[in-house]
Amino acid sequence: PDGCPSCGEELSWRGDFLMCTNSECPAQTQTGLLYFFKTLGTARGFGPSAIEKITLGGYSTIEQIYALTQAQLEAVGFSKKQSENLLDALANSKIEPVEDARFLSAFGIPHLGIGESRRLLQHHSLDSVGQLTAEQIDSISGFGEKTSGPIAEQLQARWSTISHIKALGFQLNITPKVNADGSSENAVESPISGKTILFTGEMSVTREEMQAEARALGAVVRSSVSGRLKILVIGDAPSQSKLTKATNLGVQVLREAEYRALLDGEAP
User: What are phi and psi of 228, to 5 degrees?
Assistant: First the structure.
C-alpha cells in the first residue's frame, strides 16, 4: 500500500514489517486500547465494538476512558445499562487484584510482554521503571542490547500514562525481588520453593491466581513443558499435549487437590 489503510499517513519498513508512522493513527489507537484491556483482564466489556465507539466519540487514551462518566458514554451511543456496565467494569478493574507485571505489560511497550515485565520487576519496583536506563535493563539476564534501549525510551515516554493509571488505586500483586544470581531476596520455605511448576486446565480459581500463589511460595512458574519442569498441576480439561510430554519426561503430575495437599505438607 502507498499509505496506511486507516489514516493514509506514510508507511515505513521496520525489519520485515511495514508500519504506519502516525502515532495518532485511529487503528493504532484502538489496537493499543484493546491490548490494554485484554492484557489487564479485569475490565470486561471493552471489546472491539465498544472501543471503536468510544474512540470515535473522541476518547482515545486510557486516561480519558478511566475518567468517563455515564453521560459521556450515553452521548457516544451506549444505552443506560451498557454505560453502567462499562463503568462497573472500570471500577472492578481497580479493585480486583492483578499482577504488577501484567499491569505494566498492558501498556503495550514493544519487547515488554508479561514475562519480560516480570523479569524487569524482579529487579526494579514498578515505581522506578520510568527512570531506568538502557544499561540497567541490559544488565538483567534475558534482556539484550538491541531491545534494552527501545524499552527504556518507551518506559520514559509512557511513564506519565503508567503512573497516572497506577495512581487510580489499582490493587497490584508485587513481583518478588531476586538477587543478581536469580535467587530470591526473601527466600520462602515451602514444599514447592525452588521448583519449576506448570498449570494446565480449569482450576477452582483462575490460573493467574494459581501462578501468583506459586510464585509467592518460591516456585518458578513456566508456560510450557521442558526437561527442567518438576511439577505439572492439572485441572479439568487439561492440555493433552502438555500432559503427554510431561509424562514422557517423567515430570510429577498432580491434580489440583493433590497439589493443595502438597502445599499443606501432605505428600501426594
Answer: -90, -10
Please name the residues in contact with 39: beta carbons below 8 A apart, sequence gap of 6 or more.
Answer: 102, 105, 106, 108, 114
What is the overall mean pLDDT for the chain? 91
Question: What string of DSSP letters covers the chain?
Answer: --S-TTT---EEEETTEEEE--TT-HHHHHHHHHHHHHHH---TT--HHHHHHHHHTT--SHHHHHT--HHHHHHTT--HHHHHHHHHHHHHHHHS-EEHHHHHHTT--TT--HHHHHHHHTTS-GGGGGG--HHHHHTSTT--HHHHHHHHHHHHHHHHHHHHHHTTT--EEPPPPB-TTS-BSS---STTTT-EEEEESB-SS-HHHHHHHHHHTT-EE-SS--TT--EEEE-BS--HHHHHHHHHTT-EEEEHHHHHHHHTT---
pLDDT tier at 187, thresholds 50, 70, 90: low
Sign of CA dihedral 54, 58, 60, 66: negative
The residue-averaged pLDDT of 64-75 equals: 97
